[in-house]
Amino acid sequence: MRSALDLIRVYGVDGARARVANPVERELVDTAARFYDTEPSVGVTYSGFCVISLPHRRLPSDSEVWERKVPSHPCSLTIEPGSLTYNGQKHDFGVPYGAAGRLILLWLQTEALKTDSRVVRLGSSMYSWMRLMGTHAGGQNYKAIREQAMRIAACRLQFVWTGQAGGRSAVRFKKDTIVEEGMLFGDLLNGEEDPRQARLWEDTVVLSRTFYDELKKHPVPIKLNAVQAIFRSSLAIDVYIWLAYRLRALEGRTHVGWAALRDQFGPQYSRIRDFKDPFVKALQMAVCVYEEAKVDLDDKGVILFPSPPAVAERRFRQVVLPPEMTGRPRLVGS
């Protein structure tokens, strides 16, 4: 499943493209090429998002609540739509979704730990922020990022981890918002702003204390440049983050069946056979940007093997200064 990167290393990008026969293989080569040409950059995500994430598509109604429970995991996620008031008017926003929503969440979490602060300083404009995230600031990308940012600012979420603590069920994450406060402009939604000038939030947003504290307790290191290479597919992003979470902790060969995979990654599919092709494609894209992943497929599902972490432990420690050097832990980037 690493053949795309192998082809690029041996033949170069153009040579690799010339040696694949179908559109799916060409897309994998293009994915590997986007990753191959980027500088490594370390990011983090909360462990809960490695198990359950946002919906892939817009929900049928913006008033609908997103509730996810995965039978094979002791974790559930509820996201409620919310509202923001500006210019004297209340504006309702639905649940965040898709690749753009995931990119924003990853960026906010990474920046918070990078500065050891729940106050996240954004670029001076939407244009600069999108460039930092590795996307282009034009057309549909700009509109998608803008809309998802507003949804994230407005929504309320709850992670529940079931387990035992002192003989009682333990809830690790209480109902809260992701963004506690920020500065935004009332003309943001009029559709006339220049993406090089219009600001999402003027200078900063403040993550809620509960979300920030849980992120600090349970961070999972990932490669931001890997996510940026597969940002066209929200499913591939989810699979990559899941592999980064699972493979580093495995002690032996682990089989995950198609039913469990469908429940976790594709609950919108009523039939497992309809889920298989999209999932396999997403898995292949994820492995293109997670070279160390040891993964195989069989008729019954996916086989996971203990693998080096997506971000080498030594590299992750290099970007986290020890307390004696700073007075407190601080992620300083890569």
How would you sum up this structure, described in words?
- The protein is α+β, with helices and mostly antiparallel strands and 334 residues long.
- It is 42% helix and 22% strand.
- The chain has 13 helices and 18 strands.
- A 4-stranded antiparallel beta sheet has the order 2-3-7-10. Strands 6-12-11 form a 3-stranded antiparallel beta sheet.
- A hairpin with a 5-residue loop joins strand 2 and strand 3.
- Helix 1 crosses helix 2.
- The C terminus is likely disordered.
Please give the radius of gyration in angstroms. 20 Å
Q: In what order do the strands lie side by side in the largest sheet? A: 2-3-7-10
* N-C termini distance: 28 Å
Tell me, rounded to a whole number, the average pLDDT: 81
How many β strands by DSSP? 18
Percentage of helical residues? 40-55%
Structure class: alpha+beta
* Number of helical regions: 13
The unreliable regions are: 185-192, 318-334
